[in-house]
Amino acid sequence: MHRLSEVAALVEFLLQNKHKTFRPKKRFPQGTLRYNLHKKAEATLHSGVDLRTAVRLPANENLDDWIAVHTNI
Question: Which whole-number Å values give the CA distances from 29 to 11, 26, 45, in the listed order?
């Protein structure tokens, strides 16, 4: 019975806070470099660009080698 009340509380929380996000949206002061970069990235990502075609493995590169060189562990 206790589990049912937890689920009910979660559902109530989710329905009441639909307009809120779990992570606050980032706010950058207008006119700053960060603001301009944020707006450009936002416009690019929402413009319908297919990221699979924009980000490709360079020709004559092995995927495993490329990942090994370009990742920090």
Answer: 36, 10, 21
